[in-house]
Amino acid sequence: MRWPLLPAAALLATALIARGEAAAPKAPAWDQAAAARYLDARLAWWRAWPKAQRDHGTACVSCHTALPHALSRPTLRAAQPQRSPAELAMFDDVTERVWLWREVEPFYPDQTRGIPKSSESRAVEAVLNALILSTRDAERGVLGPNTRQAFANMWAQQMQFGDQKGGFPWLNFKLEPWEAPNATIWGATLASLAVARAPGYMPDPAALEALRAYLRGGLGGSLHNRALILWADSQIHGILAPTQRQQVIAELSAAQGADGGWSLPALAPWQRIDGSTLPSASDGYATAIIALALREAGMETKAPVLARARLWMISHQDKATGALPAKSINKDRQSGTDAYLFMSDQATGLASLALRPGG
Question: What is the 3-state secondary structure (H, E, C) of 20-38?
């Protein structure tokens, strides 16, 4: 019996398939291990930075570096399981300051930074402490006494009267997006995350409803703030009506660039204080925060808007460092300066959450 002759190309293809070498190339993926290494290294740098040092031998917990590490590191644990010394030290610092709340100094006292920096600092730290510890407890599956005390400190800072009723005072150094006049929406969003992440935690219903009402009142703000409110609504629910939720989702989707990312100018009328032009290209922070808000709001990861955003973030991850680069909203910061990577720190953490497996 004679077999028919096959062209050389067909024979080669058959041989490759037999050896498993002709499989279709894998779709690009977010390098979780590299992102975890980057965030670990940045947290270690931050804790050693002289400007981060505070009283009682502790370090400031920052919105830009410590917070994204704390929020995203559990998601990255499978790729990089070991907790770094910096992460363990951060938890120790937070716990110490929670219990020494009446003894530790505000991060920025009125006497050296002007009124009302003490009250702003207290609220910022209280919210961040509760969020960091509730995130750790969520990973453990048990709400601990340290976190309960952190929540007690947090709710004591909630505003009871005035325009900020239900929200929290927040640091205003005129540094967007987290230390600026409108950053109170950011702070209220983080408080919502803390409540939602804490296993088995039941806050006072009146305080929680006041928080919802405060966030609901921010819908007339920037698209960036509406994205934060959408994120908060996905955590504690009851902030947005279904029609409002769909409206925000539609607005965020419409602002997506042709390349799949979002630009900073598309989210708010931010202006740099050094007079330089804010980049109009898609940005790591802008893309990560919107993609995460949309995913948390229930958009399927295979939906065209999120699928394009995922590809943008994956393709823009720095293969050497693991970071998702992002630009400063405040200045044209130069590589090598201390604050140059702050936005990239946050972008990397948020992107890791937006790109987490599943969903």
Answer: CCCCCCCCCCCCHHHHHHH
